């Protein structure tokens, strides 16, 4: 629930609830869109790669569609997700006469009508263990999912992760998933993020040139760490995002290069050598030795940045701390001043030079009213002094230079009615600290 909704729900629930909270409702929880993006531990991503390597080694050296190493890879990823509270589904399909598997993992919560999905193909070719292609993407999104659980992240959008089978045979698993997704479910997918080969040993930093918002989200991350990127051109449509893009779902993704050769300009930009980005592409040497740790680390963190950013609130997230008292306080006709109090806690140092003071007073003649903000030390800031004549109600946000006041403490809205006949009450009083 949004903060404002929660506050009005409280206000509407009962006077007893408000009273039990002494009238003040501190509302300091950061909205989902403002949640800090966690760092993805690359050591954990690498451990998943070591485990996938062991699975290949124990199963004839690969994790290919229709082979024992593939199903063992699915079981491995699924067990990790089940243990931390994901809702997992294994989707079966048949290709080349053998059973294939997709693994879908939903994180409970978020708006079911707005889904952000990250996916990677989990199968290798038959010639090797497929650690860069595509243990790398699979392990990174696995660790991102585990980090969602570890941090208790509750995004406003719904999060889903997918591990695809038989990508190497023509995007078979992801096509099967999309083809079996009803139109109404497709419409809920607001973004699909694909990660296929993100730890190439001689890496480039490529961002898919598809949905502009997704593309920019990745670029913002990389420019923030000072790493130049280029648009991915080594075969657009050569990975599972194409299955989603084909039915109109916004897509994006990251890639560190396959068999194409790094140019000298790219060597200048990124380091490495003017050889293939991945000299072990689709071969037996695509092992845990075929990974550039820096590329794996940066891309894993870029994935988290995108997942966290894109799943948060779509509207501008309020960054401030809000304190509000929604308890009604009646203002006696031509009588003594009354106050509504909010207790500000957890704000370091002084109040800001532009403290926003939300005032909602229901009254039939605002020319009767004097309204002041009273700081915790008793300093008085006048907000309204009998102007406005016979107009009804004050419902407005004042900006007060409160930089001379310590932020924490009991702030009061003081209202006095100085003329007979018309009456009213304080409806709500709200302070927003930037
Ligand atoms: N998907 C390809 C594979 O698994 C690799 C690849 C080539 C790729 N070009 C790409 C992946 C561009 C993503 C983007 O063999
Ligand atoms: Zn691949
Ligand atoms: Ca009056």
UniProtKB/TrEMBL annotation:
InterPro entries linked: Galactose-bd-like_sf, M28_fam, M28_SGAP-like, P_dom, Peptidase_M28
Domain P/Homo B: 315-434
Keyword set, alphabetical order: Hydrolase, Metal-binding, Protease, Signal, Zinc
Pfam families per the UniProt record, alphabetical: P_proprotein, Peptidase_M28
Signal peptide span: 1-29
Family named by the database record: Belongs to the peptidase M28 family. M28A subfamily.
Protein name: M28 family metallopeptidase
Organism per entry: Streptomyces omiyaensis
């Amino acid at each position: 629930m949004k903060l404002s909704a929660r506050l009005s729900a409280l206000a509407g629930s009962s006077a007893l609830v408000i009273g039990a909270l002494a009238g003040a409702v501190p509302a300091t929880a950061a909205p989902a869109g403002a949640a800090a993006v966690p760092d993805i531990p690359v050591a954990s991503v690498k451990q998943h790669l070591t485990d996938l390597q062991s699975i290949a080694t124990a199963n004839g050296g690969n994790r290919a569609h229709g082979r024992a190493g593939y199903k063992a890879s699915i079981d491995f990823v699924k067990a990790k997700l089940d243990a931390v509270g994901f809702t997992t589904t294994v989707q079966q399909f048949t290709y080349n006469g053998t059973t294939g598997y997709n693994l879908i993992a939903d994180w409970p919560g978020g708006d079911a009508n707005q889904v952000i999905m990250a996916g990677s193909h989990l199968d290798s070719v038959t010639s090797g263990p497929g650690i860069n292609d595509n243990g790398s993407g699979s392990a990174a999104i696995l660790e991102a999912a585990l980090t969602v659980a570890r941090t208790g992240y509750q995004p406003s959008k719904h999060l889903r992760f997918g591990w695809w089978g038989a990508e190497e045979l023509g995007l078979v698993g992801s096509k099967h998933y999309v083809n079996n997704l009803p139109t109404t479910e497709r419409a809920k997918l607001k973004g699909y993020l694909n990660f296929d080969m993100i730890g190439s040993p001689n890496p480039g930093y490529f961002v898919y040139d598809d949905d502009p918002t997704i593309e920019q989200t990745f670029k913002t991350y990389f420019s923030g760490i000072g790493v130049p990127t280029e648009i991915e051109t080594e075969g657009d449509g050569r990975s599972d995002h194409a299955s989603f893009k084909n039915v109109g779902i916004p897509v994006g993704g990251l890639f560190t290069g396959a068999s194409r050769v790094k140019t000298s300009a790219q060597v200048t930009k990124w380091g490495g050598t003017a050889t293939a980005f991945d000299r072990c592409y689709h071969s037996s040497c695509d092992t845990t030795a075929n990974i550039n740790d820096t590329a794996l680390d940066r891309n894993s963190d870029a994935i988290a940045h995108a997942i966290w950013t894109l799943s948060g609130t779509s509207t501008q997230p309020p960054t401030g701390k809000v304190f509000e008292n929604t308890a009604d306080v009646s203002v006696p006709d031509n009588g003594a001043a009354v106050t509504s109090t909010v207790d500000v806690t957890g704000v370091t140092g002084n109040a800001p030079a532009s403290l926003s003071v939300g005032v909602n007073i229901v009254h039939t003649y605002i020319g009767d009213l004097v309204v002041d903000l009273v700081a915790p030390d008793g300093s008085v800031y006048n907000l309204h002094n009998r102007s406005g004549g016979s107009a009804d109600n004050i419902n407005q946000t004042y900006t007060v230079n409160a930089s001379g006041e310590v932020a924490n403490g009991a702030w009061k809205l003081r209202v006095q009615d100085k003329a007979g006949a018309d009456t009213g009450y304080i409806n709500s009083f709200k302070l927003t600290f930037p």
